[in-house]
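Subject: Protein record for review, amino acid sequence with backbone structure tokens
Concerning: The relation between a protein's sequence and the shape of its backbone.
How to read it: Take the token row as a discrete description of the fold.
Enclosed: The protein record, placed directly beneath this head.
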Amino acid sequence: MSDEVQKEEKPEGSGTPQAGGLLEWTEAMSVGNDILDDDHKTFFDLAKIILEVDADNGNTIVFQSALNMLADYVHGHFLREEKALRAVNYPHFDAHEQKHKAFRQYVMKIVQDYGEGRSDDIRNLPGLVVSWLNQHILAEDMQYKFWIKEKFVDKRPLAFLAVEAETKF
């Protein structure tokens, strides 16, 4: 990851969810691949942790850890998904990759700002993640559901993929 993250507009599909918005992965979000589905479930879990941890009440270490995990998951999952889509010559790959890029840049900027003591957007992060996931999984990822092939999905733990992604992004 570069040290310099540029501020981006909120990525498409990242509006603030209504109170009580969907904070859980549901079977309707399944892309037909257990590994990718588990990645998506973990994104929702991380959003809940970030939402529940009060960084202003002495939980800054837990909060920063959750943010770092989110950053790793963004890098690792997107790399895993993009490698699989590229391997099957998914026809909408370029557009899908651009949506990932916009979300990744926005999240990384918020994480970087928080690490530097600027936390203006941090309270919006759980809503951003949940809204984006709901929209992205149901509208975008469902389009590749019948393209994805088990043999092309990298089965390594996301921590390894996140390290590999660091050299790419």
Notes: The chain has five helices and no strands. Residues 60-87 form the longest helix (28 residues).
